[in-house]
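During the reporting period the student researcher (J.K.) took over the structure-prediction task from the postdoctoral fellow and processed the backlog of single-chain submissions. One of the processed entries is reproduced below for the supervisory committee.
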Amino acid sequence: MYELFIELTDQLFYEGYAEQLAHSDPQAFQFEFNDFLNTYSNEMVLRMPHS
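J.K. obtained the following structure tokens:
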């Protein structure tokens, strides 16, 4: 998931953005990464077939 987050973030902004953010503002990077994980997890739960 980490690699997917890096790839998506770099595509949205510019190549190297995610790494730069991680070094310049680790708290903001962690916030964005956690938000990505939460959003992705919620999407997966909603898309799973229910028994």
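The committee noted the following: The chain has a mean pLDDT of 88.
J.K. will present the remaining backlog at the next meeting.
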